[in-house]
Write a structure and sequence with these properties.
300 residues; alpha/beta; Aminopeptidase; elongated
């Protein structure tokens, strides 16, 4: 039977049956349309700002603060592969890094999430900004289709063009803010405010690039990087104009060997050691001091 006949039967057969029933005097119950057939759902009230997380490490506000963001969470699983979900991989890596930094000492640490909860993309860097973070690191895992052999970690910073656009958006939105990266913009004209925010953005991008280079340097021979691991893109979590921000793609969840590494105790420990060392060296450079790291090999 042709497709046209199938469509005709699907449309006209129910009509024909209904007409026959009415023709034989059989009453067909028809629902009375009205408010009783409207489904009402009570949406949750706006919760306002997301509560700020706790801070681990030294009880000294003069110490630098890094905020670690485990990508995805809640009803957003992220990439999937080999029975694994990105949200669980990123949380495991974030917790391992937090523990390594606390053990290393000297740096305060906070996590945007420590459990399986959903956060809007823009909320993640905003949490770090509200806490006055000195560095923001968002952790993710990549995907390349089902059971793909593609592997390797990548480090993302905000692209130059995206950086300028983000600075302009921020200046337009935050013209009445007090300070951005130490620069006062309160009461300034839109033009002056835009210039100050752009300068702040450039400084943040330079520091982001420095941290990204430390990740690849400290990870050489210890983390398997994708060819050309340093990348730039217009990513929402990297758009903060007054805070160095890096997104780390830890590897491909669709690669079985890499997925096993990312979920193993050894793999998490390796990641945490490399990243904790890169963070320690980054902050040591910012302060002009020598980093205190677990490894006896120190290089600046």
């Amino acid at each position: 039977m042709s497709l046209r006949w199938h469509l005709a039967l699907a449309v006209f057969l129910p009509i024909g049956i209904l007409a026959a029933l009415i023709g034989f005097g059989i009453k067909v119950p028809v629902p009375v349309l009205g408010r009783g057939y409207v489904l009402h759902l009570r949406l949750p009230e706006l919760a306002g700002e997301v509560p700020l997380p706790g801070i681990y490490g030294p009880d000294d506000v003069s110490r630098p603060l890094v905020v670690i963001d485990a990508g995805h969470g809640g009803h957003d699983p992220g990439a999937t592969g080999h029975g694994l979900q990105e949200k669980n991989i990123t949380l495991g890596l974030a917790l391992a890094l937090k523990d390594a930094l606390v053990k290393q000492g000297g740096i305060r640490v906070a996590l945007t999430r420590e459990d399986d909860r959903m956060l809007v993309l823009s909320e993640r860097p905003e949490i770090a900004r509200r806490m006055g973070a000195d560095l923001f690191l968002s952790i993710h895992a990549d995907s390349a289709g089902e059971e793909s052999p593609v592997s390797g970690a990548s480090v993302y910073t905000l692209s130059t063009r995206a950086s300028s656009a983000a600075a302009a958006r921020f200046a337009a939105r935050e013209n009445d803010a007090d300070r951005v990266n130490g620069l006062s913009i309160q009461g300034q004209s839109e033009a002056v405010s835009a210039i100050l925010v752009d300068l702040s953005q450039r400084r943040a991008q330079e520091e982001s690039a420095e941290f990204a280079s430390l990740i690849t340097r400290e990870g050489e021979g210890r983390i398997a990087f994708h060819p050309g691991p340093r990348r730039a893109a217009d990513l929402v979590v990297l758009r903060s104009p007054d805070m160095p921000s890096v997104l780390f793609e830890s590897g491909f969840i669709t690669n079985e060997q890499e997925a096993r590494r990312l979920t193993s105790v050894e793999g998490r420990a390796q990641f945490a050691q490399v990243m904790a060392r890169a963070i320690a060296i980054y902050f040591a450079r910012q302060s002009g001091s020598q980093p205190v790291v677990a490894s006896s090999e120190q290089s600046l």
